[in-house]
Design goal:
about 25% strand; about 180 residues; single chain; four-stranded mixed beta sheet
Length: about 180
């Protein structure tokens, strides 16, 4: 995976009405241009690239959430880039499958539906750092799910349940883009 290819993808993202995503885009492009190992989870200054999945249900009326064990909150599935990930969106696909057991339709390159740079609290040897997150849209083949040790629970949610799961604005906007572009 090449930083230049990821930068081209990030540079193509546009939502003039979302100032936070535009700022995240600038920060992600800066990271990709200025850090020698932007995909390494050991890169803490200024952080590293992560990927997240908005997985839509087969009928495309709900989306998938995980209750993250470490952060103790509901989030979209996602995580760190691995050297085995051939394309940046494969990170999001792999993480969603690992965390939820979802069967995801393989239909080529998924749509980039969000960008979000956010802080991760210090833990053990890891200092506070930033995740420069790319959020991709996928569709599940079936609704059957199973969690893993990293998550407390998995759930299908509708857009009317944003407040119930206390989802941050960045997730809400990415989910809405996934549904309606």
């Amino acid at each position: 995976m090449r930083a230049r290819d990821v930068a081209d993808l990030v540079g193509s993202f546009a939502d003039e009405g979302d100032e936070a995503a535009t700022k995240s885009q600038e920060l992600i492009l800066g990271l990709l241009a200025g850090v020698s190992s932007p995909f390494s989870r050991a890169s803490f200054t200024p952080g590293h690239i992560t990927c997240t999945a908005v997985v839509l249900s087969p009928e495309r009326r709900r989306f998938l959430l995980v209750h993250h064990r470490r952060l103790d909150r509901w989030l979209l599935p996602g995580g760190h880039v691995e050297t085995s990930d051939e394309a940046i969106w494969e990170t999001a696909r792999r993480e969603a499958i690992e965390e939820t057991g979802a069967q995801i339709v393989a239909d080529g390159r998924p749509e980039l539906v969000g960008l979000d740079v956010h802080g991760i609290p210090a833990r053990g040897r890891e200092p506070f750092h930033l995740h420069h997150d790319l959020i991709f849209r996928f569709v599940a083949r079936a609704e059957k799910l199973k969690g893993c040790a990293e998550v407390r629970d998995v759930a299908w949610s509708g857009v009317g349940e944003f407040d119930h799961y206390a989802l941050p604005v960045s997730i809400r906007r990415s989910v809405l883009r996934a549904f309606w572009g």
